[in-house]
From TrEMBL:
Protein name: DUF3892 domain-containing protein
Annotated InterPro entries: DUF3892
Family annotation (Pfam families): DUF3892 (PF13031)
Source organism (scientific name): Anaerotignum propionicum DSM 1682
Lineage: Bacteria, Bacillati, Bacillota, Clostridia, Lachnospirales
Region described as Disordered: 82-107
Length: 107
């Protein structure tokens, strides 16, 4: 049991190392509740107050502490949001429901 706990803690620590920045969320920070995808790629996010924002706005909001539970990472020259590992899979961004990009453009 102890080894499993240690492995989980090590996995979380390694995953956090992949993040460039883990902003401190403000007390009123929103959470991401859905992914806006187009052709399989994330274009934006639905927040806990039902607003929909594009990817760049979400990164800036996260940087300002306005979105909780995410860190900022990068791949090549592109920044993106990534769930902060907390030992549960349910709240990972990849497990959130998808909203079509068309719904975002209708708002």
């Amino acid at each position: 049991m102890n080894q499993t706990l240690e492995k989980n803690e090590l996995s979380e620590a390694l995953a956090k190392n992949t993040l460039d920045d883990i902003p401190t969320p403000k007390p009123n920070a929103k959470k991401i509740t859905g992914l806006i995808k187009q052709s399989g790629k994330i274009k934006g996010y639905r927040l806990s107050d039902d607003t929909m924002i594009d990817k760049n706005e979400a990164i800036e909001m996260a940087r300002q502490g306005e979105i909780a539970g995410v860190g900022i990472a990068h791949r090549k020259d592109t920044e993106y949001l990534k769930s902060i590992p907390d030992g549960t899979e349910d709240n990972n961004l990849s497990n959130l429901p998808t909203v079509s990009a068309e719904e975002m453009s209708n708002e």
